[in-house]
Design brief:
Layout: E1 2-7, E2 10-12, E3 18-26, E4 28-39, E5 46-52, E6 58-59, E7 67-72, E8 77-82, E9 91-101, E10 106-110, E11 114-118
Parallel strand pairs: 2-11
Antiparallel strand pairs: 1-3, 3-8, 4-5, 4-9, 5-6, 7-8, 9-10, 9-11
Length: 120
């Protein structure tokens, strides 16, 4: 069994920064990709950015130049550095991972989410 846990959310003023963490645990053989998503009430969950093994991170246009994904899939941990935050970035942020377990099974796994609120 595998598990994802996000942390690092909170309340920040417009223009501020936060760094979210996503940590995978369990019987992990490898992680193919980890994506960061966000969701506001009443709207669909949307992709923010994605890091895939062997490739550079990719971002949606609305966060390019402000958000940065870093970390190491081989170490089961990635980060989402969010700078120049704006009220429209307020959402619950989730990480999602494609994890190959030691049994060889592939799991599409979600974390529980962490709230990010940008407000003055």
């Amino acid at each position: 069994q595998v598990q994802l846990v996000e942390s690092g959310g909170g309340l920040v003023r417009p223009g501020g920064s936060l760094r979210l963490s996503c940590t995978a645990s369990g019987s992990i053989l490898s992680i193919y990709a980890i994506g960061w998503y966000r969701q506001v009430p009443g709207k669909q969950r949307e992709l923010v950015g994605l890091i895939t093994s062997g490739e550079s991170p990719k971002y949606v246009d609305s966060v390019k130049g402000r958000f940065t994904i870093s970390g190491d899939l081989a170490k089961n941990k990635v980060y989402l550095q969010m700078n120049s935050l704006q009220p429209e970035d307020t959402a619950v942020y989730y990480c999602n991972a494609d994890i190959i377990e030691t049994t060889g099974a592939l799991f599409d796994t979600w974390g529980q989410g962490t709230q990010v609120t940008v407000s003055s």
